[in-house]
Task: structure prediction
Amino acid sequence: MIFRGFVQLTAITTGAILIAACNQSPSTDTDAANSENNEASTSADSDLLQRINNGGVINVGTEGTYPPYTYHNEQNELTGYDVEVTRAVADKLGVSVEFKETQWDAMLAGLDAGRFDMVANQVSLTTPERRAKYDVAEPYNWSGAAVLAPKSDSRFNAWESLKGLKSAQSLSSNYGEMAIKYEAEVVPVDGMAQAIELVKQGRADVTLNDHLAILDYLNKFPDSDLEVKLVAPAEEKRGSGLVLVKGNDEVLAKINEAMTELQADGTLTKLSEQFFGEDVSKR
Result:
């Protein structure tokens, strides 16, 4: 009996030790991994801040194929609204900027992997997952829905004016849904270019699309005889700014300060008018 009791006690004690070990091991491994990740993140953040403080080089991800925001001109030089704003920010920070061109689908993955320090490509933090992972600096442009129609059409004084009008829209777009919301008769199209042609031909009364996209078209085709009739109210507009991985608080503050200065000295207004024909830097 004494021997049996000893064996039972030994088994229980050994089991308790094994259970404790099993419970502790994953936690220890996880803590170690988290610690390493935090140290790596802190190191990367410190490196970026140090480069900015020392007048170094910042790496910025962009597409290079998305006019008028980021594209190559006739001389094959990278330019565009987002590109030139980023260069202006770099000048304010006293650093050089090196653009890393990449595909849209790889934009945030490249940011995660540390291939670049920030992204300048009209990236919007529209999902909770993105907002939890990234920070966006002070916006350098604002946009929302807008209505495009012939200059001679004077029927527009509110969004409700769309009721009963023919609106050329892609059925799968948010703007198509807006047209239906305001009881317009939707004329299906494949995209914005076709929609505009239908409006010019009189086969549709209007088309709804992103305000900046419409301004870009009007800037390129000033003789189109079309104009913006309605624009979304300020509270419905979305802003776009430089995007960074969370944790770069000091860097973000420096970028925001630079953006405020560019707004105050008229640089953003000048660049807006250059690429869009009007100031899009204010909400």
In short: DSSP finds nine helices and 14 strands in the chain.
